[in-house]
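Internal QA ticket QA-208
Title: Verify multi-chain structure generation after dependency bump
Assignee: T.L.

Test input:
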Amino acid sequence: MNFGFTEEQELLREQAQRFVEQRCTMPRVREWAASDQGFSRELFAEIAELGWTGLLIPEAHGGAGLGWVEAALVLEVIGSALVPGPLASTLLAGAAIAELGSDAQKQRYLPELAAGKRIGTVALLEGDGSLDVGGVAAEAKGEGGGLVATGEKAHVLDAAAADLFVVALRGEQGLLLCVVEGDAEGVSAQRQPIIDRTKHLGSVRLEGASVPAEAILCEGAEAEAAYRRLFDLGAVAVTAEMVGAADAAHQLTVGYAKERTQFGRPIGQYQGVKHPLAEMFVDIATFRSLLYYAAWVAAGQPDALRRAVSMAKAYASDAFARVGIDTIQLHGAIGYTAEYDAQLYLKRSKFARPTFGDSDYHYERVAQLGGL
Amino acid sequence: MDFDLTPEEEAFRAEVVAFLDENLPVKDMRAWTRKVREKRWVGFSWPKEVGGGGGTLMQQAILKAEMAKRRAPALGTCFMGLAWVGPGLIEYGTAEQKQRFIPDILDSKVQWCTGYSEPDVGSDLAALQCRGERDGDHYVVNGQKIWTSLAPFADWMILLVRTAPMEGGNKHAGITCLLVHMKSEGIEVRPIENMAGGRMFAEVFFTNVRVPVDQRLGAEGEGWAVTVSALANERSSISEVEALLRRLDELKNLARATRKHGRPVLEDPAVRRRIAHFETVIEGMRLNGLRFLTKQLKGEPLTSETSVNKLHRATLEVAMADFALTLQGPAAAYTKGAEPAIESGKWQQSSLSWPDTVIGGGTPNIQKNIIAERILGLPKD
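Actual output:
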């Protein structure tokens, strides 16, 4: 047993940290987030060059053939600098096709996702707010050899940037998951403004979009299980970014508490400041443990994933929300300014909390899995 | 990262599981205590030379994890002896001291208590005043300890005294650790009733108590180091979840059996969420413990990070006991002996008993100071 990282994993983390320190400084991050697309295509190409878009894609299809522990490590570092861009969503689409696709489907979609030539995402949810399979109402009706899809998917990560969507639809045989290409007729994606400018959500409208039979990944009970797993993997990805962001917010605040002097002493000497900083440390250390374990079971013990990911996402959602608020309060007025970075972490916490299930949702799952 | 066990570790786990299958649930605590002693699971990580099990850190973690999973009772009854007196003896004791004190601890024949706090010395332990003056082959101890848990029943005390005055800012230098028999002449124990009605802790007065020099643990003036090392042993973060998991099971059973406002409490989402949160924090503690264990396995010493689980435990102990009362509606006010009391007032009792573990061994605020100053590097007060 080893609840630490292998040498290769440590190297990957160091590589990611170096990259982020050199390339993703806060002024750049702000600039990218404020741009029309909301992220830098140039940076995304560099990320692909490093092999991160293909982390979860088998080597046979151009990826690195690694697992969720590695993906979580990289996403944690990306999250620590609030780097905007569709890495998490592309990783999820790649994982979905790698796990569910036929050889032909993998051959068709994965090499381009791995190489970062196309951006992928998953479109599971719809507008009614339901997170489970029952919320899928967008229809797929048989026509000729394929299907025609009608409906609207909501809360889709990086919807406007994506070239390729893994979509959940309601078919005649129950749920189905398929790949929909962004440039197909009848498919339109719309980015919606959200509280955190370093993250992007949007909707995908399907108006008689044709889905060829070759694009169907799975149907029926298999699709329901796959939907749940994909949703859970999404929660792993978001929580990994939350660990990095919460840690960075905490470090920013600890640094400020050491430098800022009031009443002739650094404010970090007062227990009123010291104790919340200690509580933040405890929370972050704990949701980091929960997240690493969820990432490990995602790769190795799929049955344990539901409990592990719900615990991680539930704890992280509440803890990061507190970290975000305390970061502002401990800074005082400077933390309220747009110019200072503290506010960016608060906004990230408010994006991350509901994304792939908030703490109410995930604690209810923990209750059910715990026999209540 | 890899949570799988090696074949050797798996074989050990199988041995543990087989033993637990055979012996759980426990009907006779004495028989259980004897059997786990024969297995050498009491003091499992202690060297074989002193009668321990010679188990590796990893085996110890496996043993604890399986016992926690199966909610097995504790290994041995000499709580403080097993938690820190024994480890202190192993690290600092003479050969003769090891031979004299360790077997009784392992055989659950004695009870130890710990003489740290004094009337004016609580969180700031190093400022202690109780004096030990050298007189030939003895130390003569005068002074007072207080809040000494188990003192009314203990056979022995691990005691911190001041053998040299505080010099300048260095409070730690003149502290010495003595092992004192509780029946020594000049010791008076006055039990203190706690708010739950228990008489587990006490004031202990020392008047010219003569302690032989061969009952000094470590060198004169080295008492602080002995204490710090002993407390590090106390912080085995994995063991802490066993009791919490048992408590969680009991809380779930209470919730399943309880109705409030005319309907089952488990229909209330807030109740479900709260219990799930407790379960999540306990799992977080277990995983934190595994992360710390990995650090130890790599040969890095554990330091202040164990305060993380200590804080969690304190919060959980208080919250779980209090939450249990909120489930009970009007019955929550009744205690043992009352007709409406639920589960004989067990939760009322625990809602008044948490300071044993929450305040004992350092209050939550002290743990926060430790984290802020030693891990985060914030300036000391």
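Spot checks passed. Chain A has a mean pLDDT of 96.
Status: verified.
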